[in-house]
Write a structure and sequence with these properties.
Blueprint (H helix, E strand, L loop, with lengths): L2 H7 L1 H28 L4 H4 L13 H10 L17 H27 L9 H21 L6 H9 L5 H7 L3 H11 L2 H19 L2
Helix pairs in contact: 1-2, 2-5, 2-6, 5-6, 5-7, 6-10
């Protein structure tokens, strides 16, 4: 369901979904830029992207698609990997930063809400549910090793001497590959697999 339809049908649910969605996507992108900055690349900082201001991160077409189709995207934080102190480690750490941030957001939301089980059916519980679901899905989606998703750059860093050029050549077509996977019903099982892996890890770590 697109957000526009949700806004029309249930404004409260729209607010409870949109707030954690914006927060999670923005922190995901800021994490990329912050780690890149710490590793020697100031591009994100110079571009004004190390900020929680949503207007700096929203992509007009991606936002429109989110409202109309329920599938959208934010503007990627610009990173010049050639500026990094160690390009191979940079590919892994910078690309992992957004995923790790989403996993931590899901983990700490669950950690915080567990002692307050009486909130589970109220607004706080619904908000926490959306926060966990959104962050698990964002982390799982970005782990898929299809350019331009983060998983592809992590894989480039891991298999540095073998396949990065092949993956880089795929990047201009990555969006169409993702849409094709979505249309063929391949994307959802991949997301479900990575969600299960992340969920299992969080389940082990939760006291």
């Amino acid at each position: 369901m697109g957000l526009l339809k949700l806004l029309t049908n249930d404004p409260l649910a729209f607010a409870l979904l949109t707030i954690p969605l914006l927060f999670s996507v923005i922190l995901h992108e800021v994490a990329h830029g912050w780690v890149a900055y710490r590793m020697g690349d100031p591009t994100a900082k110079w571009s004004g992207r190390l900020t929680l201001n949503p207007l700096k991160h929203l992509d007009p077409i991606g936002t429109l698609m989110l409202f109309l189709a329920g599938f959208g995207w934010a503007k990627p934080v610009p990173v010049n990997f050639n500026n990094l102190s160690d390009k191979r480690k940079g590919l892994i750490f910078v690309s992992s930063a957004g995923i790790v941030t989403n996993i931590l957001l899901a983990f700490f939301t669950l950690l915080f809400i567990r002692p307050f089980s009486t909130f589970s059916s109220g607004i706080a519980g619904i908000f926490a549910y959306y926060m966990v679901e959104i962050n698990l899905t964002l982390a799982a989606l970005n782990l898929i090793p299809i350019p331009p998703l983060d998983g592809s750059k992590i894989l480039m860093g891991i298999v540095w001497e073998r396949t990065p050029n092949f993956l880089a050549r795929l990047e201009p077509y990555g969006f169409f590959i993702i849409i094709g996977f979505l249309y063929l019903g391949i994307l959802d099982p991949l997301i479900a697999l990575f969600r299960w892996i992340i969920g299992t890890l969080i389940g082990i770590l939760l006291p």
